[in-house]
From TrEMBL:
It is an enzyme of class 3 (hydrolase). Residues 35-186 form the HhH-GPD domain. One of its GO terms (molecular function) is purine-specific mismatch base pair DNA N-glycosylase activity. The gene is mutY. The lineage of its organism: Bacteria, Pseudomonadati, Bacteroidota, Flavobacteriia, Flavobacteriales. Adenine glycosylase active on G-A mispairs. MutY also corrects error-prone DNA synthesis past GO lesions which are due to the oxidatively damaged form of guanine: 7,8-dihydro-8-oxoguanine (8-oxo-dGTP). The keyword Iron applies. Its EC number is 3.2.2.31. It catalyses: Hydrolyzes free adenine bases from 7,8-dihydro-8-oxoguanine:adenine mismatched double-stranded DNA, leaving an apurinic site. This is Adenine DNA glycosylase.
Length: 345
């Protein structure tokens, strides 16, 4: 059997039962593929099911408010995916009357849809012979063919796309594409792959040359930026909480949070007290104290947020304050959500 035939044969015996595999509806395929970018299947599954329940069609998603979409997405991270999802749903609903483009090139025109997602939708829904190349596929191809080009380099991305096109099964493109991704997720895993029982072990270059642990090759990521966040949880005499919406580009765009004082290092209580008027319009507070004894380090892909929550009590009534129950309805970063679940108002 050829490489592609072995992949398809393995897939038929080992594939997981996943809801988006029981449909050729491009809306559901698109939704699942966007959600599973940078996300494990186990984590993404409940989000997919909730989205389908709330927004069974692309028209339903298009007609939702951005806050509704962000709230359902809360905790999944990379929130630009959710905003792009909402923007594209509106375009599909309004311009295309709910019908997705049925070609790879047409799908690439949609916001938030790149080569991988366009290839997935085109092949799964419309049987177009386009190979998918995601992290799992990079790993399988790199190990099997013994390729040490960095998979996140311009040269590497171009090379692996051409190789994927060469080895794919054009006649069974949907099963082949799903198969090689599943193979990378379950069999040729990043760590401790099941090489002993692998159907490709008799011709895998990385296994023969002892390179399983060093392939695929990746260029080093940019240096992680260290940031220092001080959230001022301002409670008035009625225990209403002040919240604000993040604006502009950057992390957590359009999500809600407490007033934020970002500093160049960790600040003490005295320093917070002396500088909080730069972000708050507040008369003399009645009490200020640090909520979390240890600094919380919230790790994102390219930055670490060293975070403290400061409780600031005031006799003034908030003009934009909300109750705890109201606060729970707002889309917030997971860092804020965890605090809300911990703090006893």
């Amino acid at each position: 059997m050829s490489f592609s035939q072995k992949i398809i044969h393995w897939y038929s015996a080992n594939k997981r039962s996943l809801p988006w595999r029981n449909t050729t509806d491009p809306y559901k395929i698109w939704l699942s593929e966007i959600m599973l970018q940078q996300t494990r299947v186990a984590q993404g599954m409940p989000y997919y099911e909730r989205f389908i329940e709330h927004f069974p069609t692309v028209h339903d998603l298009a007609n939702a408010s951005e806050e509704e979409v962000l709230k359902l997405w809360q905790g999944l991270g990379y929130y630009s995916r959710a905003r792009n999802l909402h923007t594209t749903a509106k375009l599909i609903s309004e311009k295309y009357n709910g019908h997705f483009p049925d070609t790879y090139k047409g799908l690439l025109e949609l916001k938030g849809v790149g080569d991988y997602t366009a290839s997935a939708i085109a092949s799964f829904c419309f049987k177009e012979a386009q190979p998918v190349v995601d992290g799992n596929v990079f790993r399988v191809l790199s190990r099997y063919f013994g390729i040490d080009l960095p998979i996140n380099s311009t040269e590497g991305i171009k090379y692996f796309k051409a190789l994927a096109l060469k080895v794919m099964d054009a006649d069974q493109i949907a099963d082949y594409n799903q198969g090689i991704m599943e193979f990378g997720a379950l069999q040729c895993a990043p760590k401790n792959p099941y090489c002993l029982h692998c159907p490709l072990n008799d011709s895998c270059v990385a296994l023969q040359k002892g390179k399983i642990d060093i392939l695929p090759v990746k260029l080093k990521k940019a240096k992680v930026k260290e940031r220092y966040f001080n959230y001022l949880v301002v409670l008035d005499k009625e225990n209403a909480i002040e919240i604000r919406q993040r604006r502009g580009r950057g992390i957590w765009q359009n999500l809600f949070e407490f007033p934020l004082l970002e500093t160049e290092r960790e600040y003490s209580l005295e320093e917070i007290t002396n500088t909080m008027d730069t972000v708050l319009e507040l008369k003399e507070p009645t009490e200020i104290y640090q909520f979390n004894e240890k600094t919380i380090v919230h790790k994102l892909s390219h930055q670490h947020l060293h975070t403290k929550f400061w409780i600031v009590k005031s006799e003034e009534k908030h003009s934009n304050g909300v109750s705890l129950e109201e606060l729970k309805e707002y889309p917030v970063p997971v860092l804020i959500a965890e605090f809300i679940n911990t703090f006893k108002f």
